[in-house]
Design a protein that fits this description.
Layout: H1 2-29, H2 34-38, E1 47-49, E2 67-75, E3 79-86, E4 92-98, E5 103-108, H3 109-112, E6 116-123, H4 124-128, E7 143-146, E8 150-158, H5 165-173, E9 176-181
Parallel strand pairs: 6-7
Antiparallel strand pairs: 1-2, 2-8, 3-6, 3-9, 4-5, 4-8
């Protein structure tokens, strides 16, 4: 009886270890991650509106059809990114992801408190080279430190009713994501 109990316990422990290792390895082993799926439609350092999601043609899984979406695949190797996104009538959010789809920062229009979400995205090394200006406060210039050189900026605008989707899409088409060269 004890022998069967020990074998069962050992099998469960080994199964748990294999399961945990597999779950942790999958994001790095997946060849069709979000960054790769967006590569054909989204040039680097350019904000691109995404088409409305359908079950058959959605570029990124689990997209909400009540939101208009735009993405910017960024590469900080040549300089920092300047993001300017006008807010929509209902709700606008910006989420930053690493190359491996790990979210590391998010902000919405209510937190920004303005008619546009404006910020600078850079690496910690680039941030260290930014001269400290006495007349610019932290509230005037939002700087986000990216943990990786490449990643994705996802911009979403809510259309609370289907008839308001054109307004949400219009807000996203005015968004800009462009490189600021290193000085």
């Amino acid at each position: 009886m004890i022998r069967w109990l020990m074998l069962t316990l050992g099998g469960l422990l080994l199964g748990g270890i294999v399961h945990l290792a597999t779950v942790l390895a999958m994001p790095r082993a997946a060849s069709q991650d979000a960054y790769s799926r967006l590569a054909p439609v989204a040039p680097v350092n350019t904000m691109v509106p995404l088409p409305a999601p359908t079950p058959e043609t959605s570029l990124v899984p689990f997209m909400d059809p009540a939101f208009a979406a735009a993405v910017c695949r960024y590469d900080l190797s040549t300089g920092s990114i300047k993001l300017n996104a006008p807010v929509s009538e209902a709700y606008t959010s910006v989420t930053f992801y690493t190359r491996n789809s790990v979210a590391y920062y998010a902000i919405n229009d209510h937190a920004a408190g303005r008619r546009a979400i404006e910020l600078d995205l850079m690496t910690a090394a680039q941030h260290a080279q930014v001269p400290e200006e006495e007349d610019v406060t932290a509230a005037d210039r939002l700087i986000i430190d990216s943990p990786t050189i490449t990643g994705i900026i996802a911009l979403r605008a809510l259309a609370p009713e289907p008839g308001l989707m054109p307004l949400a899409r219009r807000a996203l088409t005015a968004a800009q994501c462009h490189i600021e060269p290193v000085h």
